[in-house]
Amino acid sequence: MRILILGSGGREHALSWKISQSSSCDALFIAPGNAGTAQHGTNLAIGYNDFEAVKNAVIDEKIDMLIVGPEEPLVNGIVDFCKNEEALQHLHLVGPSKESAQLEGSKAYAKEFMAENNIPTAGYKKFNAQQITEGQAYIAECQTPIVLKADGLAAGKGVLIIDNIEEAQQALADMLGGKFGAASAEVVIEEFLSGLEFSVFVLTDGKNYKILPVAKDYKRIGEGDTGLNTGGMGAISPVPFVDEVMMQKVIDRVVKPTINGLGKRSMDYKGFVFIGLIEVQGEPYVIEYNCRLGDPETEVVLPRIENDLIPLFASLKEQQLHKEQLTINPKSAATVMLVSGGYPEAYQKGIALSGLDQAKDSLLFHAGTKMNASNLVTNGGRVLAITSMADDFKDALSQSMENANKIQFEGKYFRTDIGFDL
Ligand code: AMP
Ligand code: GLY
């Protein structure tokens, strides 16, 4: 098979690393990719939101399978676009349709879907720009902290958790007034849930599903989960507190009703469902759905999957996923993200990286890197994910940390306390 992966982060490097190991992979392309993905395939200089360019690449490179990494092209409808093109009817697509991607693309859509399928989640109400006064009155009756969510995609910045009623009322007015553009034309106000978060990844063909390794990521920039939110500073898999009892509750109350719910709405879903969960007094609640794999969760999830991914992905088109077996490595994986100085605020790009050849016994997944002539340089806030495996996540973490100290670039920062709360 000839395969094209869309995306350019650590997630896509991990996917290309894994897929390039398959005996069924005859050629691998990544658009636009990074310096890491180029070790496993050919990077194509096209943007993943340029559907016409993607179509031309599929035709020119005789692509059989298109794997969509990030949410944006999915929410913009790349799967529907491909399905409607005469020349692309042969294509295996890994990613949900535009309607299905609304599970991530619209918080209100996701909340309605959960209500319809009795899936446990925080209570909520939604408001639009004509309902600011009503929304503010609603906030006055809520317990603090107040959770405000922009309905649409807001690059991970659309969720505000505010301790004070007046500030929350002001924030609601700002959001409905256009703070996040069209993404906050509607705002969901949610009950605050307190507990430990974890993420369950499901591969589905819309009818059958496989549960992939459970992971937990660490989103704040600072040690002890303090400071600004980032895309993710590290992750571990499995998650010690998510035992069999908890997993069974997640399967019965969340995964099965979610997959059934896709069927009820006739949603065309062939891809990953990322379920963000929180444990509250022993019970799982859904915080959010994403329509793709997580980053950096993928960097700990894929190294634990022993299967060749291509037969799994190829089974989606005809809804034959039930015929596949999934084998998970029982070892623990931990990843530590090296980030640029200043991230998640302003940072510099183009800084030389060195010492990667000194790193031993870890997988190095590039996130924001590129080649500048023959020099490897930084090209994003999140630069490199260092994944290690061991019997225990703490040992895996020490291995990643040892290598994090060997890799150098000016301004390098990483958290040393991934898994501190477990
Ligand atoms: P989301 O984009 O919906 O995942 O929200 C981003 C982050 O905000 C989550 O990972 C949680 O840490 C936090 N969060 C979202 N919703 C809630 C909630 N209802 N209660 C507590 N924390 C929340
Ligand atoms: N690490 C969180 C995400 O990928 O959304």
Entry keywords:
422 residues; alpha+beta; Rossmann fold; Dna Ligase, domain 1; 5-stranded parallel sheet; 5-stranded antiparallel sheet; binds adenosine monophosphate; binds glycine
Characterise the protein shown here.
Among the domains are: 2-94, Rossmann fold, CATH 3.40.50; 124-190, ATP-grasp fold, A domain (Dna Ligase, domain 1, 2-Layer Sandwich), CATH 3.30.1490.20. It is built from twelve helices and 22 strands. It has helices at 10-19, 51-60, 71-75, 78-83, 102-105, 107-116, 132-140, 165-176, 244-264, 298-301, 309-314, 393-406, and strands at residues 2-7, 27-32, 42-43, 65-68, 92-94, 124-128, 146-150, 159-162, 186-190, 196-204, 209-211, 216-217, 220-222, 226-229, 234-237, 271-280, 283-290, 332-339, 363-366, 369-372, 375-378, 382-390. The chain has a five-stranded parallel sheet with strand order 3-2-1-4-5. A five-stranded antiparallel sheet has the order 12-15-18-22-19. The two termini are 41 Å apart. The structure holds adenosine monophosphate and glycine.
Structural class: alpha+beta
- Most strands sheet: 5 strands, parallel
Each distinct ligand: adenosine monophosphate, glycine
Instruction: Tell me the Rg in angstroms.
Output: 21 Å
Please name the CATH architecture of the domain at 2-94: 3-Layer(aba) Sandwich
Break the fold down into its secondary structure elements and pairings.
Layout: E1 2-7, H1 10-19, E2 27-32, E3 42-43, H2 51-60, E4 65-68, H3 71-75, H4 78-83, E5 92-94, H5 102-105, H6 107-116, E6 124-128, H7 132-140, E7 146-150, E8 159-162, H8 165-176, E9 186-190, E10 196-204, E11 209-211, E12 216-217, E13 220-222, E14 226-229, E15 234-237, H9 244-264, E16 271-280, E17 283-290, H10 298-301, H11 309-314, E18 332-339, E19 363-366, E20 369-372, E21 375-378, E22 382-390, H12 393-406
Parallel strand pairs: 1-2, 1-4, 2-3, 4-5
Antiparallel strand pairs: 6-9, 7-8, 7-9, 10-11, 10-16, 12-15, 13-14, 15-18, 16-17, 18-22, 19-22, 20-21
Helix pairs in contact: 7-8
